Amino acid sequence: YHFGWSELTALTDARYRFIQAPRQELYDLAADPRERENLAGRRAQTEAAMRAALDRFTAGRAIDTPAAVSDEARERLQALGYVGMQSPIGADVSSSSLADPKDKVHVLEDYRRAITLANERRFAEAVPVLRGMLAGEPGMADVWQQLGNILSRLGRHQEAVDAFKRFVALKPGDPGGLVLVAGTLMRMDRLDEAWSHAQLAVKIAPDNDRRARASAYAAHRYRWTTT
Asked: Angle CA(75)–CA(80)–CA(86) in degrees, nearest 5?
Protein backbone atom coordinates (compact mmCIF):
# COMPACT_ATOMS: atom_id res chain seq x y z
CA TYR A 1 0.00 0.00 0.00
CA HIS A 2 2.88 2.39 0.67
CA PHE A 3 4.79 1.96 -2.58
CA GLY A 4 2.07 0.48 -4.81
CA TRP A 5 3.86 -2.80 -5.42
CA SER A 6 2.57 -6.35 -5.24
CA GLU A 7 2.47 -8.05 -1.87
CA LEU A 8 4.72 -11.01 -1.14
CA THR A 9 3.57 -14.09 0.78
CA ALA A 10 5.66 -17.17 1.44
CA LEU A 11 5.37 -20.67 2.85
CA THR A 12 8.29 -22.75 4.13
CA ASP A 13 8.18 -26.43 5.06
CA ALA A 14 10.90 -28.88 6.07
CA ARG A 15 12.47 -28.75 2.61
CA TYR A 16 11.02 -26.10 0.33
CA ARG A 17 10.26 -22.38 0.36
CA PHE A 18 7.55 -21.09 -1.97
CA ILE A 19 7.13 -17.34 -2.58
CA GLN A 20 3.91 -16.07 -4.11
CA ALA A 21 4.63 -13.00 -6.27
CA PRO A 22 4.03 -11.83 -9.85
CA ARG A 23 7.06 -14.02 -10.64
CA GLN A 24 6.78 -17.02 -8.34
CA GLU A 25 9.76 -18.62 -6.65
CA LEU A 26 10.43 -22.10 -5.31
CA TYR A 27 13.65 -23.12 -3.57
CA ASP A 28 14.93 -26.47 -2.35
CA LEU A 29 16.43 -25.41 0.98
CA ALA A 30 18.14 -28.74 1.54
CA ALA A 31 20.11 -28.56 -1.71
CA ASP A 32 20.18 -24.75 -2.08
CA PRO A 33 20.09 -23.07 1.36
CA ARG A 34 21.12 -19.67 -0.10
CA GLU A 35 18.18 -19.73 -2.53
CA ARG A 36 20.22 -19.28 -5.69
CA GLU A 37 18.23 -21.55 -8.03
CA ASN A 38 14.55 -20.81 -8.61
CA LEU A 39 12.74 -24.08 -9.33
CA ALA A 40 9.35 -22.53 -10.10
CA GLY A 41 7.94 -24.12 -13.24
CA ARG A 42 10.27 -27.09 -12.96
CA ARG A 43 8.71 -28.86 -9.98
CA ALA A 44 5.10 -28.27 -10.81
CA GLN A 45 3.64 -30.73 -8.30
CA THR A 46 5.51 -29.25 -5.33
CA GLU A 47 4.75 -25.73 -6.46
CA ALA A 48 1.04 -26.43 -6.85
CA ALA A 49 0.81 -28.14 -3.45
CA MET A 50 2.54 -25.28 -1.64
CA ARG A 51 0.49 -22.67 -3.47
CA ALA A 52 -2.71 -24.45 -2.44
CA ALA A 53 -1.50 -24.65 1.16
CA LEU A 54 -0.62 -20.95 1.19
CA ASP A 55 -4.04 -20.11 -0.24
CA ARG A 56 -5.66 -22.05 2.61
CA PHE A 57 -3.63 -20.14 5.19
CA THR A 58 -4.51 -16.74 3.75
CA ALA A 59 -8.14 -17.43 2.83
CA GLY A 60 -10.45 -15.01 4.63
CA ARG A 61 -7.57 -13.14 6.24
CA ALA A 62 -8.04 -9.74 4.66
CA ILE A 63 -5.55 -6.96 5.28
CA ASP A 64 -7.08 -3.58 6.06
CA THR A 65 -6.96 -1.44 2.95
CA PRO A 66 -6.51 2.36 2.88
CA ALA A 67 -9.75 4.18 3.49
CA ALA A 68 -11.82 5.35 0.58
CA VAL A 69 -13.55 8.72 0.55
CA SER A 70 -17.22 9.49 0.21
CA ASP A 71 -18.62 11.07 -2.92
CA GLU A 72 -19.17 14.29 -0.97
CA ALA A 73 -15.58 14.42 0.24
CA ARG A 74 -14.34 13.65 -3.27
CA GLU A 75 -16.40 16.56 -4.64
CA ARG A 76 -14.93 18.88 -2.03
CA LEU A 77 -11.42 17.71 -2.90
CA GLN A 78 -12.11 18.43 -6.55
CA ALA A 79 -13.40 21.88 -5.61
CA LEU A 80 -10.04 22.50 -3.92
CA GLY A 81 -8.28 21.66 -7.17
CA TYR A 82 -7.49 17.97 -6.72
CA VAL A 83 -7.95 16.08 -9.97
CA GLY A 84 -6.97 12.62 -11.15
CA MET A 85 -7.30 11.13 -7.69
CA GLN A 86 -6.52 7.43 -7.48
CA SER A 87 -8.47 4.77 -5.67
CA PRO A 88 -6.54 3.01 -2.91
CA ILE A 89 -4.98 -0.31 -3.81
CA GLY A 90 -7.21 -2.99 -2.35
CA ALA A 91 -8.40 -6.51 -2.77
CA ASP A 92 -10.00 -5.66 -6.12
CA VAL A 93 -6.59 -4.96 -7.68
CA SER A 94 -4.88 -7.99 -9.18
CA SER A 95 -1.42 -8.55 -7.72
CA SER A 96 -0.22 -9.72 -11.12
CA SER A 97 -0.85 -6.22 -12.49
CA LEU A 98 1.39 -4.61 -9.85
CA ALA A 99 5.17 -4.35 -9.83
CA ASP A 100 7.15 -7.23 -8.39
CA PRO A 101 9.17 -5.91 -5.41
CA LYS A 102 12.12 -7.98 -6.61
CA ASP A 103 12.42 -5.55 -9.52
CA LYS A 104 12.38 -2.52 -7.24
CA VAL A 105 15.33 -3.13 -4.92
CA HIS A 106 17.18 -0.12 -6.35
CA VAL A 107 14.19 2.11 -5.55
CA LEU A 108 14.15 0.95 -1.94
CA GLU A 109 17.90 1.55 -1.69
CA ASP A 110 17.42 5.13 -2.95
CA TYR A 111 14.65 5.65 -0.40
CA ARG A 112 16.87 4.44 2.44
CA ARG A 113 19.67 6.72 1.23
CA ALA A 114 17.33 9.72 1.23
CA ILE A 115 16.09 8.93 4.74
CA THR A 116 19.68 8.58 5.97
CA LEU A 117 20.55 11.98 4.49
CA ALA A 118 17.48 13.52 6.15
CA ASN A 119 18.36 11.95 9.51
CA GLU A 120 21.81 13.52 9.16
CA ARG A 121 20.07 16.85 8.48
CA ARG A 122 21.49 16.93 4.95
CA PHE A 123 18.08 17.94 3.67
CA ALA A 124 19.22 19.67 0.48
CA GLU A 125 21.01 16.47 -0.59
CA ALA A 126 17.96 14.30 0.14
CA VAL A 127 15.64 16.32 -2.12
CA PRO A 128 17.14 15.32 -5.50
CA VAL A 129 17.26 11.66 -4.43
CA LEU A 130 13.53 11.69 -3.68
CA ARG A 131 12.71 13.66 -6.82
CA GLY A 132 14.68 11.16 -8.86
CA MET A 133 12.63 8.32 -7.37
CA LEU A 134 9.36 10.09 -8.08
CA ALA A 135 10.32 10.82 -11.69
CA GLY A 136 10.11 7.09 -12.34
CA GLU A 137 7.58 6.15 -9.66
CA PRO A 138 5.08 9.05 -9.39
CA GLY A 139 2.52 6.89 -7.60
CA MET A 140 4.60 6.46 -4.43
CA ALA A 141 2.44 8.47 -2.04
CA ASP A 142 4.65 8.12 1.02
CA VAL A 143 7.65 9.44 -0.90
CA TRP A 144 5.68 12.58 -1.83
CA GLN A 145 4.93 13.04 1.87
CA GLN A 146 8.58 12.58 2.81
CA LEU A 147 9.62 15.06 0.12
CA GLY A 148 7.10 17.58 1.44
CA ASN A 149 8.41 17.18 4.99
CA ILE A 150 11.99 17.81 3.87
CA LEU A 151 11.08 20.78 1.68
CA SER A 152 9.19 22.25 4.62
CA ARG A 153 12.29 21.89 6.80
CA LEU A 154 14.21 23.80 4.14
CA GLY A 155 11.63 26.60 4.17
CA ARG A 156 10.60 25.84 0.59
CA HIS A 157 6.93 26.02 1.51
CA GLN A 158 5.32 26.26 -1.92
CA GLU A 159 7.24 23.21 -3.11
CA ALA A 160 6.21 21.44 0.10
CA VAL A 161 2.55 22.27 -0.53
CA ASP A 162 2.84 20.90 -4.06
CA ALA A 163 4.36 17.65 -2.74
CA PHE A 164 1.75 17.27 0.01
CA LYS A 165 -1.02 17.83 -2.53
CA ARG A 166 0.35 14.98 -4.62
CA PHE A 167 0.12 12.81 -1.49
CA VAL A 168 -3.50 13.88 -0.97
CA ALA A 169 -4.38 13.09 -4.59
CA LEU A 170 -2.93 9.60 -4.19
CA LYS A 171 -4.44 8.99 -0.73
CA PRO A 172 -7.64 11.06 -0.62
CA GLY A 173 -8.98 9.08 2.32
CA ASP A 174 -6.04 9.95 4.59
CA PRO A 175 -6.75 13.13 6.59
CA GLY A 176 -3.08 13.42 7.48
CA GLY A 177 -2.24 14.74 4.03
CA LEU A 178 -4.82 17.48 4.30
CA VAL A 179 -3.46 18.39 7.73
CA LEU A 180 0.04 18.76 6.25
CA VAL A 181 -1.27 20.99 3.46
CA ALA A 182 -3.22 23.10 5.95
CA GLY A 183 -0.25 23.55 8.27
CA THR A 184 2.06 24.60 5.46
CA LEU A 185 -0.50 27.02 4.03
CA MET A 186 -0.84 28.61 7.47
CA ARG A 187 2.91 29.26 7.53
CA MET A 188 2.47 30.99 4.18
CA ASP A 189 -0.43 33.10 5.51
CA ARG A 190 -2.81 31.58 2.98
CA LEU A 191 -5.40 31.28 5.69
CA ASP A 192 -8.60 30.70 3.73
CA GLU A 193 -7.01 27.81 1.86
CA ALA A 194 -5.62 26.38 5.11
CA TRP A 195 -9.06 26.56 6.72
CA SER A 196 -10.70 24.77 3.77
CA HIS A 197 -8.18 21.92 3.96
CA ALA A 198 -8.45 21.64 7.73
CA GLN A 199 -12.25 21.52 7.58
CA LEU A 200 -12.15 18.69 5.06
CA ALA A 201 -9.55 16.82 7.15
CA VAL A 202 -11.99 16.83 10.05
CA LYS A 203 -14.84 15.70 7.83
CA ILE A 204 -13.06 12.58 6.58
CA ALA A 205 -11.13 11.81 9.78
CA PRO A 206 -12.30 9.28 12.40
CA ASP A 207 -13.93 10.84 15.44
CA ASN A 208 -10.84 10.14 17.56
CA ASP A 209 -8.38 11.81 15.16
CA ARG A 210 -7.20 14.62 17.42
CA ARG A 211 -4.56 15.82 14.98
CA ALA A 212 -7.09 16.69 12.30
CA ARG A 213 -9.33 18.46 14.80
CA ALA A 214 -6.42 20.37 16.31
CA SER A 215 -5.36 21.48 12.84
CA ALA A 216 -8.84 22.75 12.06
CA TYR A 217 -9.02 24.60 15.38
CA ALA A 218 -5.61 26.20 14.82
CA ALA A 219 -6.45 27.22 11.26
CA HIS A 220 -9.78 28.71 12.38
CA ARG A 221 -8.28 30.61 15.30
CA TYR A 222 -5.29 31.91 13.32
CA ARG A 223 -7.51 32.90 10.43
CA TRP A 224 -9.71 35.12 12.56
CA THR A 225 -7.08 36.56 14.91
CA THR A 226 -4.95 37.79 11.99
CA THR A 227 -7.70 39.33 9.87
From this structure: 60
End-to-end CA distance of the chain: 41
Note the pLDDT tens digit of each residue in 97-135.
788 888 888 888 998 999 999 999 999 999 999 999 999
User: Chain centroid to CA 160: how far?
Assistant: 17
Angstrom distance (rounded) from CA 211 to CA 98: 33
Give how far Cα 31 sits from Cα of 18, 49, 205, Å.
15, 19, 52
What DSSP character marks residue 193?
Answer: H
Q: Are 133 and 140 in contact (CB under 8 A)?
A: yes
Cβ partners under 8 Å of residue 158, min gap 6:
188
Angle between helices 123-136 and 105-119 (to 10 degrees): 160
Helix axes 191-204, 71-79, angle to 10 degrees: 170
Predicted TM-score of the model (pTM): 0.73
Secondary structure (3-state) at 25: strand
Q: Report residue 91's pLDDT band, with 50, 70 and 90 as the boundaries.
A: very low
